[in-house]
Write a structure and sequence with these properties.
Blueprint (H helix, E strand, L loop, with lengths): L8 E5 L5 H8 L2 H6 L8 H13 L3 E8 L4 E10 L2 E8 L8 H16 L4 E7 L3 H9 L3 E8 L2 E9 H7 L1
């Protein structure tokens, strides 16, 4: 573990009222740069996608909230069979504070508590060193690189059994 101070954050399920905030987050310049698709996402397309994810039983979506009740990021899980893929984002105003690691750790543990899923996969672009560090510090194991969306990305996994040992 690193020596970054811990902040008091908690998770709550995303709601339809979060749509505009998440739209702003996903269109931040650094977020687009670290995403598999760099194009700006318009509000209509985002709204359709966001609302579909809120009702999709194979998608679990949390917002991270700080001690001042301010949303600071999100973590979501897409489930397929007995595995899930995680996606995380930290608001640009709260980056470089160690929150990514906390959101990943809290979100992954809560996800395992609320589901029977055995494995979580994370895919991170090679140049996204902050996310690579956050996943490793949250207990995810590097599994090498893979090609996704015509890009070389780092693959990480967290197994349910390993996550239980981290508690």
């Amino acid at each position: 573990m690193n020596n970054v101070p811990k902040y008091s954050i908690h998770l709550r399920k995303a709601t339809k009222n979060d749509c505009e905030l998440v739209h702003r987050w996903i269109n931040e310049e650094e977020t687009r740069e670290n995403s598999f698709s760099k194009e700006f996402i318009d509000i209509e397309e985002h709204t359709r996608w966001f609302f579909s994810k809120l009702i999709d039983p194979n998608h679990i979506y949390y917002l991270a909230i700080n001690e001042n009740n301010v949303p600071v990021g999100q973590i979501r899980f897409s489930i397929q069979d007995d595995e899930a893929v995680v996606s995380v984002l930290v608001d640009e105003n709260f980056r470089k504070k160690g929150l990514g690691e906390q959101i990943i750790s809290l979100g992954s543990h809560r996800f395992f508590e609320e589901t029977s899923i055995g494995t979580i996969h994370a895919y991170v672009k090679e140049k996204n060193s902050a996310s690579i560090k956050a996943f490793v510090n949250a207990g995810y194991i590097p599994k090498g690189t893979v090609s996704m969306h015509n890009q070389c990305v780092n693959h990480f996994i967290l197994e349910r059994q390993a996550a239980q040992l981290l508690n």
